[in-house]
Amino acid sequence: MTNYEISTEGKILSAASKIFLLYGYHGTRLRQIAEVAGVNSSVIHYYFRSKENLFKAVVKKVMDLVIVEKFDTVGNKFENLTRFFCIELHNNRDLFIDSLKYLYPDDWENVLKKIEYSSERRDKGYRP
């Protein structure tokens, strides 16, 4: 595989990140993600088994980006990530917290506090 080729799983994850960001968990349909990724929706089930598992994979991807950036990044990418957190913490709090518990079983409460702090700063218009 060349640097320009993305795996099918990567295409699905990328598409899911965009669609979940736009519509949130409840507003997203697997068919939308499949269309954006250019795959059949059955392929999504093959890789992720369920919409909830795909959501958890997106949360992990976003968390990995934020943790690497240490919650202090400036720019559009960080704005999109914090927007995702704000939306999901508000609209799908239980599922989002379950995802954090799954991803960070020993430290999910601290991760949640960091996200909430970052979201509060964003809501107040803070710009580092």
Short description:
With 128 residues, the chain is mostly helical.
SSE layout:
Elements: H1 8-27, H2 30-37, H3 41-48, H4 51-69, H5 76-91, H6 93-103, H7 108-123
Helix pairs in contact: 1-2, 1-4, 1-5, 4-6, 5-6, 5-7, 6-7
Number of helices: 7
Q: How many domains make up the coordinates?
A: 1
CATH C-level category: Mainly Alpha
Beta-strand percentage?
under 5%
CATH fold label? Tetracycline Repressor, domain 2
Any idea what the CATH superfamily is called? Tetracycline Repressor, domain 2
Characterize the overall form: globular
**Can you name the CATH architecture?**
Orthogonal Bundle
Q: Radius of gyration from the CA trace? A: 15 Å
What is the helix/strand order?
A: HHHHHHH
- Low-confidence segments, ≥5 residues, pLDDT <50? none
Q: Helical percent range?
A: over 70%
| Estimated structural class | mainly alpha
Strand segment tally:
0
Gap between N and C termini: 39 Å
Mean pLDDT: 81
How many strands, which pairing sense, and closed or not: the largest β-sheet?
none
Molecular structure report:
The chain has 7 helices and no strands. With 128 residues, the protein is mostly helical. It has a single domain, classed as Tetracycline Repressor, domain 2, CATH 1.10.357. It is globular. 22% of the residues are buried. The mean pLDDT is 81.
Structural descriptors:
77% helix; globular
